[in-house]
TrEMBL record:
It is a multi-pass membrane protein. GO terms for molecular function: hexose transmembrane transporter activity. Residues 49-541 form the Major facilitator superfamily (MFS) profile domain. It is found in: Membrane. SUPFAM superfamilies: MFS general substrate transporter. One of its GO terms (cellular component) is membrane. This is Major facilitator superfamily (MFS) profile domain-containing protein. PROSITE patterns: MFS (PS50850).
């Protein structure tokens, strides 16, 4: 009897354990399924990322990388010298010799029409002429500053997806206008044009240049908007644990666009006297495609929750996660929205409210140093810089393309680093190295050692790409509550484009005055930013907002 009793008593716990195990087995798959289905890549998420980044971020990159090469043709064209042989830079003259049979060795061909040369710029006008020559790039960055600052307001009237659509329209209009200038004002005459031909060509000069500036302004506006609207949309559709990785695709596709723009700009493709307008407009095809493909994407579930449309938000999440197990994630979004202050926050109040102060200042500092480190002195002016330090003919093109390649490789590596090492180390360590590189650049530019300058430039780009490239777009999305995020990101992006404008205008001016020592200015900016961010930038990787705010 006792044996039977023992057997019975032993069987009861066994049954209990089995039931407990079975209960655990019921719960565990749901949790496991949530973690894997909701926190990983799906075909819908991949499609959304590709459509948004190709039609906005990639196009922005092309608009940054291409004009650096086309300046060889745009500068004399805008000065009123549109004929093939009217070039004053060694690289431009090399292209004219090879593709247009221009002869710069026979002085007898340098006739009174000025067909084979550009008149020298008087010494008292050189600084102003540098600014005029960079006018189309200045229009681009001013447009970017306005687009970045106004990006938040599109959310007040449109959805996330519709705001992206508007940014594509701006770029599409800019691309269409870019085609026209070279069609109505050009000189394709081989040989020496007579005075009547020159006068006829110059009739539409002012209209053509105005269209060029308007086109670049619209492209810049689109680029500035996309830095806000695209990055916020990518953050909204991303699983929480993947948010940093997904948002960095915005920077990755900018970098891909820069490289493709540089490659398309070589003289064997569109980098010629009579084709540069197509080289600066073809990227609009991606915006055109995006205007249609954007409607295949789900609306931001977070925006739908803000609009109290829970059912539509749930459907959007089901599409993005390709699963019906979305309630936990949806509840998390609803809780975050419920705890956020839903009142409108103005730009002025962002600066005066104590709890926003350091998140905003560090976001501004990150976006400002992204430009004040001097990165666009490379991508906007590297053709001139490489020529000045001794690169000749096609070597300049290979030098330019190498900057795009190293930028792409380092950015791809940063996709892993951002989540592996966190945000703070990838800002501080590269900033310290960049400061040292700037000092070395001053030295080796002054003593004219081209290969060392190129190596240092590539090292600078690599250090930029792993941290300063992607993190300024990620950081504001992590340190602000949802209700103020669009305003904060708009202010930060405006700071980036404003500093970009300063670099674009002042770099050629200072370079003409102090030569290679211009990089000391970037050195001072980097060291100042390092000190500020060392003391005031928290680590945000994997942390809740309450933990981040405790840092300040």
């Amino acid at each position: 009897m006792s044996k039977t009793s023992n057997r019975l008593s032993n069987s009861i716990p066994t049954t209990t354990i089995r039931i407990s195990t079975m209960h655990s087995a019921v719960v565990a798959p749901t949790t496991f399924q949530y973690v894997n289905n909701h926190q990983g890549w799906t075909s819908s998420l991949i499609w959304a990322v590709l459509v948004v980044t190709f039609s906005t971020s990639f196009v922005m990159g092309v608009n940054i990388g291409g004009p650096n090469i086309y300046n060889l043709f745009i500068v004399p064209w805008a000065r009123g010298y549109p004929f093939p042989c009217q070039k004053d830079e060694d690289v431009a003259q090399w292209v004219a010799r090879v593709w247009w049979d221009c002869d710069y060795t026979d002085v007898s061909l340098w006739n009174i029409t000025g067909y084979y040369y550009l008149p020298p710029v008087p010494a008292n006008r050189q600084i102003s002429q540098h600014v005029i020559d960079a006018a189309h790039t200045i229009c681009f960055v001013i447009g970017g500053a306005i687009g970045g600052l106004t990006g938040q307001y599109w959310y007040s009237y449109l959805t996330r997806r519709n705001a992206i659509f508007v940014s594509m329209i701006f770029q599409l209009l800019g691309s269409i206008l870019m085609i026209i200038p070279l069609l109505i004002y050009h000189g394709y005459t081989r040989g020496d044009p007579d005075r009547n031909t020159i006068n006829q060509v110059l009739e539409n000069k002012d209209i053509a240049i105005a269209l060029l500036y308007i086109s670049r302004f619209l492209s810049g506006w689109s680029a500035g908007m996309c830095c806000v609207v695209s990055s916020i949309y990518l953050a909204d559709i991303s699983p929480r644990i993947m948010r940093g990785k997904v948002v960095t695709f915005h920077q990755l596709f900018i970098v891909i666009g820069v490289l493709v723009g540089q490659i398309i700009g070589v003289p064997w493709l569109l980098g010629q006297h009579d084709k540069w307008n197509w080289g600066m407009s073809w990227a609009g095809l991606f915006s055109l495609a995006g205007c249609f493909l954007i409607w295949t994407l789900p609306e931001s579930p977070r925006w739908l929750v803000q609009e109290h449309e829970r059912n539509r938000a749930a459907e959007s999440l089901r599409i993005l996660r390709q699963s019906n197990y979305i309630e936990a994630e949806l509840d998390e979004i609803v809780r975050q929205e419920a705890t956020a202050v839903t009142q409108h926050v103005s730009i002025c109040s962002m600066f005066t409210t104590t709890r926003f102060r350091w998140p905003l200042l560090t976001s501004i500092a990150l976006n400002a140093i992204q430009q004040l480190c001097g990165i666009n002195s490379v991508f906007f002016y590297s053709s001139e810089t490489f020529s000045l330090i001794g690169f000749v003919e096609d070597k300049v093109y290979w030098g330019i393309i190498s900057t795009g390649l190293i930028n792409l490789v380092a950015t791809i590596v940063s996709e892993k680093f951002v989540e592996l090492f966190g945000r703070r180390p990838l800002i501080l360590y590269p900033l310290g190295i960049i400061t040292f590189i700037m000092i070395l650049l001053c030295v080796f530019i002054q003593i004219h050692i081209p290969i060392i300058v190129l190596i240092l430039t590539l090292m600078f780009i690599a250090m930029f790409a792993v941290g300063l490239g992607p993190i300024p777009y990620v950081y504001p999305n992590e340190v602000f509550t949802i209700d103020v995020r669009p305003t904060a990101l708009s202010i930060s992006v405006f700071a980036s484009w404003f500093c970009n404008t300063l670099v674009t205008i002042l770099f050629p001016v200072f370079r003409s005055i102090i030569n290679g020592y211009v990089f000391l200015i970037f050195c001072v900016c980097c060291s100042s930013a390092f000190v500020l961010l060392y003391y005031k930038m928290p680590e945000t990787k994997g942390k809740k907002l309450s933990e981040i705010e405790a840092f300040w």
